[in-house]
Amino acid sequence: xxxxxxxxxxxxxxxxxxxxxxxxxxxxxxxxxxxxxxxxxxxxxxxxxxxxxxxxxxxxxxxxxxxxxxxxxxxxxxxxxxxxxxxxxxxxxxxxxxxxxxxxxxxxxxxxxxxxxxxxxxxxxxxxxxxxxxxxxxxxxxxxxxxxxxxxxxxxxxxxxxxxxxxxxxxxxxxxxxxxxxxxxxxxxxxxxxxxxxxxxxxxxxxxxxxxxxxxxxxxxxxxxxxxxxxxxxxxxxxxxxxxxxxxxxxxxxxxxxxxxxxxxxxxxxxxxxxxxxxxxxxxxxxxxxxxxxxxxxxxxxxxxxxxxxxxxxxxxxxxxxxxx
Length: 325
Description:
This is Leucine rich repeat-containing protein. The chain is of the alpha/beta class. The chain folds into 2 domains: 21-141, Leucine-rich repeat, LRR (right-handed beta-alpha superhelix); 154-321, C8orf32 fold. It is globular. Helices cover 23% and strands 25% of the residues. The strands form 6 sheets. The chain has a 4-stranded mixed sheet, with no helix packed on it. A 4-stranded mixed sheet has the order 7-8-9-10, covered by helices on one side.
């Protein structure tokens, strides 16, 4: 993929004080002096909405955030060797265990690496959201295959670069344009030690960072998905149809069944507008992966269901299953 595309820089600046201090409803646990967070740490301030954990914290007990029902964000210093944060939630350093989903947080993106939930991590979270989080993590726990264990045809990393593993297990050098373009994406942002779901997440984020929206009013007809995928992967520009087609081929390249879908979504100005997105089958369910909406809105469009889709209601009128030939 050409690299002359303007990247969208997403940087977070963190300010760490050297001691524990309450500022309004925000608590900053500093880079020195605080090593353990337990049930007593916040017991006298139930109004806390935001907690920042410094680099010296080595222990957080499972009941540390008990009673903080207004908590909506937990962030962690990047220098902390034991804990991390993502989308306002608390995780262990490797983001394999969810340790705290703030009760006042209405939604968050769960990293694909998360396969378990810590004790009391969902304390105070509403029933519907709690069930959704549990189902997501359980699905990811069952989707932890590395590429050498993924069945069927898909791309794999080798010492000679990315190769296509065919149905007979033979490793073939990518020959078609679409295979070469997708292989370059997979090679650039993944490696062979990652789980299949982690590779999908990395490709989703990487693809969005590399492409930019280009308005085009024409609704494609006929057998268009492969051509549209090649165009955006080569040029780095395209509309929602090209976004959807390219990510469908990327997902298929990782071993998932994938479709390009078209239909309508709610328009910002009112009414409905034509749109296209990708469907990926994970386990026994199909999920929406809308790269163009994620690029435009920033979050909420990775592994969505039709009833939870943020720009809903979304209505599908056609779909195309993608294959490599």
